[in-house]
């Protein structure tokens, strides 16, 4: 499981608590929200991680195509010279 900074985890726990209060009209304590966050990270985190990897791969492939085009544009003509 990934490690996140305490400040970020505290914010996420607060958002879970707010969600339960605002959307479900329920109260969830800090411990409950922390456990729920751990479950989400363990069970759902890999899906988001893998999608991030796929997105990064697509971006690198797109950029690499652009680099290849730029490199090809640097080639010099080899035909039509004075000495054939």
UniProtKB/TrEMBL annotation:
InterPro entries, A to Z: DUF2164
Lineage of source species: Bacteria, Bacillati, Bacillota, Bacilli, Bacillales
Organism the protein comes from: Sutcliffiella horikoshii
Name this protein carries in UniProt: DUF2164 domain-containing protein
Pfam families named in the record: DUF2164
